[in-house]
Amino acid sequence: MRDGSTLMTSVRARFLLAASSAAAAALAAWGLFALRRPAGDPVRFADDADSAQELLVERQGAIEGGGGALTGPAAKLLDGPLVRETLSEEDVKRLFPRPSDLFEYDPYTFYRYKGHLAVRVDFADYPGGFFIKRTSAEGFDEDFDHLPDQRDLLVIVTGDSHTDGMCANRESFANRVESALVDRHPGMAIEVLNTGATGYSFYNYLGVLEKLAGLKPQAFVVAFYGGNDFVDLIKPWHYYHHTALPPRRPEYWKKLDRVKSESGGALANALHQILYFHYNPEEVENALAGAAQACLEIQRRCSEQGIRLFFVHIPVAFRVGGEAHPSITRAKELLDLSDYDLHLVHRLADRLIEVLRQRGVEVIDLRDHFTGDIGRYYWSDLHINLEGQKVIAELLLPRIEAACLAGRR
């Protein structure tokens, strides 16, 4: 990778999770929102529900008869067309509050990292206790200054905080694939561009493709996370359909209060989504519809432009009825969740993967590859660790090479 000169930025300790009544709001912004936090420091929750819900109610009231055309259980996976519109900067700030020193508005992806960040992330799990997270001038998770103009191969990778990586840029699966391809194809200008960002979900992934398709990538990789990507699209789904979020429920908030100080990582990375859909089951079909429609639009655009498409499913750090991180076990008890409740994350992933595979889309399901003790692939905060990043890179490398570089070696 190429090094760029960046200014070291001192960022105060913080972690923000939007625990809104959408709980979809559940932005699960674990990762770079936890910058410079001491080990063991509990997750802090900020309730941003009011600004988001007020905006959604305003939009709902602006439509004659109230509400959009696709709501509730009637919103089956493929019953209706993809519904989207551009969000203004003001609306993005109300729906997705983000620290202004780290993020900025983007009309395609709602928000993105600012350019030229160089942030020290104190993380006890990481060798040496910290790493430096950098962004390029364009806000990509890269060490270079600007995306090079000369490229024989461009692969664009997108995803949420797992793809973004709780690690140095060079250790992300995107950059591991790039390093391996460069070694195997000397003399070629190869870029595997990491555009992942904490809190991204299916609409963001489509936005990345729309934004960067003009760069003429040969391949596009979407790494979706089954633990919170479905709940993370609920707010924009309601925005697009001019509907409001379900009302808050006192028992829901009581359960959040029980667990937020003990198992913040488990809550942000899986259990908030499970709890939200437990109390709002009608939202499951909305989430699946939005996810499937966004993914199939990605497939359509890639097919039209000759871009090879790969999906990767990053699973949660537990197998239902099997081994689980202690924080998962404890949070499950505090939230009064059953094994059936926990299995929701797998049911959601199964349904989306089925839709994609029926349409001929290749999906690498890491549940088939994270073998043995699943905990060995995750940090204690339940993000994939260096071993997890390595496995994903090893799976993607031969597929990308065969699809894009056949006969060139």
Strand content: 5-15%
What is the overall number of helices? 14
N to C succession of SSEs: EEHHEEEEEHHEHEHHHHHEHHHEH
Global outline: globular
Using DSSP, what is the number of strands? 11
Written overview of the protein:
The chain has 409 residues and is of the alpha/beta class. It is 38% helix and 13% strand. Strands 8-7-9-10-11 form a 5-stranded parallel sheet, with helices on both faces. It has a two-stranded parallel sheet with strand order 1-2. A two-stranded antiparallel sheet has the order 3-4. A hairpin with a 3-residue loop joins strand 3 and strand 4. The N terminus is likely disordered.
Describe this protein with a few key phrases.
disordered N terminus, 11 strands, five-stranded parallel sheet, two-stranded parallel ribbon, single chain, 409 residues, alpha/beta, 38% helix
Concise overview:
This protein is of the alpha/beta class.
Secondary-structure blueprint:
Layout: E1 17-18, E2 45-46, H1 49-61, H2 89-95, E3 103-106, E4 110-113, E5 118-122, E6 130-134, E7 153-159, H3 161-164, H4 173-184, E8 190-194, H5 202-212, E9 219-225, H6 229-232, H7 234-240, H8 250-259, H9 264-279, H10 283-305, E10 308-314, H11 326-334, H12 339-342, H13 344-358, E11 362-365, H14 386-404
Parallel strand pairs: 1-2, 7-8, 7-9, 9-10, 10-11
Antiparallel strand pairs: 3-4, 5-6
